[in-house]
């Protein structure tokens, strides 16, 4: 694998975990998955976001930091390769949407302290889907706490990601439009993504459409 630390990202329901598993299996890389189900505030947040947003986001940033900091302590990190299904910065992007101004200021101070200690992915792969496809995927997987997510919330998340990626000059970001393919059920579509990931990509924002 050309890139030893690859992060698969995307909006809710984009298929990032599925692709991360497939890529890790193909390359033999270590797989690190976000343990979202361990968050004790997840159902409470979706029922009452104003009340539970801060502990919800604080748990995620602590959990993600622990996972990634443990990864960097492993001696074989740059030999076997690592694939994750989340970018640590997503903690900041989601909190900007979910928290009040005062809560976000406090959260941002905590984030800045720990972010500096973590490695940066060599390649970020972002799976771009339309809001309609995201909603269809969310309904198919049937997680109760996700069923009332609004279109506006998903669109806000997408905007946060794109704004962040386009503002970064030192990250290698590959955005793949996956609206017209099914990489989970169609091996040929999956290979298209693998081939794209394996290519040399320029630092900056790179957009690809697959059909």
Architecture overview:
It is a single chain. By secondary structure, the chain is an alpha/beta fold. It has one domain: Rossmann fold, CATH 3.40.50. 52% of the residues lie in helices and 14% in strands. It contains nine helices and six strands. The protein has a six-stranded parallel beta sheet, sandwiched between helices. Helix 3 packs antiparallel against helix 5 and helix 5 packs across helix 8. It starts with a strand and ends with a strand. The model has no long low-confidence stretch (mean pLDDT 92).
Structure in a nutshell:
With 211 residues, the chain is an alpha/beta fold. Helix content is 52%, strand content 14%. The model has no long low-confidence stretch (mean pLDDT 92).
SSE layout and pairing:
Elements: E1 5-10, H1 16-27, E2 30-32, H2 42-47, H3 49-72, H4 77-80, E3 82-84, H5 90-98, H6 101-115, E4 123-128, H7 131-141, H8 151-167, E5 172-177, H9 187-198, E6 204-209
Parallel strand pairs: 1-3, 1-4, 2-3, 4-5, 5-6
Helix pairs in contact: 3-5, 3-6, 5-6, 5-8
Q: What is the rounded distance between the termini?
A: 24 Å
Q: Could you say what the CATH architecture is?
A: 3-Layer(aba) Sandwich
User: What is the β-strand count?
Assistant: 6
Counting helices, strands and paired strands, the structural category is alpha/beta
Fourth-tier CATH superfamily name: P-loop containing nucleotide triphosphate hydrolases
The number of distinct structural domains comes to 1
* The level-1 CATH class: Alpha Beta
Tertiary shape: globular
Taking strands numbered 1, 2, ... along the chain, how are they ordered across the largest sheet? Answer: 2-3-1-4-5-6
Strand content: 5-15%
Radius of gyration: 17 Å
Helix content: 40-55%
Task: Give the H and E element order.
Answer: EHEHHHEHHEHHEHE
What composes the largest sheet? 6 strands, parallel
Spans where pLDDT lies below 50 across 5 or more residues: none
CATH topology type? Rossmann fold
Number of alpha- plus pi-helical segments = 9
Mean pLDDT: 92
């Amino acid at each position: 694998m050309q890139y030893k630390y690859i992060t698969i990202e995307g909006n809710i329901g984009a298929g990032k975990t599925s692709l991360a598993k497939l890529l890790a299996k193909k390359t033999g890389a270590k797989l690190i998955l976000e343990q979202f189900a361990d968050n004790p505030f997840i159902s409470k947040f979706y029922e009452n976001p104003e009340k539970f947003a801060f502990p919800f986001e604080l748990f995620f940033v602590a959990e993600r930091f622990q996972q990634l900091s443990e990864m960097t302590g492993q001696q074989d990190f740059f030999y076997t390769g690592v694939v994750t299904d989340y970018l640590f910065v997503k903690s900041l992007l989601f909190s900007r949407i979910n928290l009040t101004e005062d809560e976000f200021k406090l959260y941002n101070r905590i984030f800045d302290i720990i972010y500096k200690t973590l490695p940066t992915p060599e390649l970020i792969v972002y799976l771009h889907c339309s809001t309609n496809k995201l909603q269809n995927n969310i309904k198919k997987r049937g997680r109760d706490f996700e069923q009332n997510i609004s279109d506006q919330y998903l669109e806000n998340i997408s905007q946060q990601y794109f704004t962040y990626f386009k503002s970064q000059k030192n990250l290698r970001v590959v955005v793949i439009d996956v609206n017209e393919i099914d990489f989970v059920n169609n091996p040929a579509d999956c290979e298209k993504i693998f081939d794209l990931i394996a290519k040399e990509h320029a630092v900056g924002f790179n957009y690809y459409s697959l059909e």
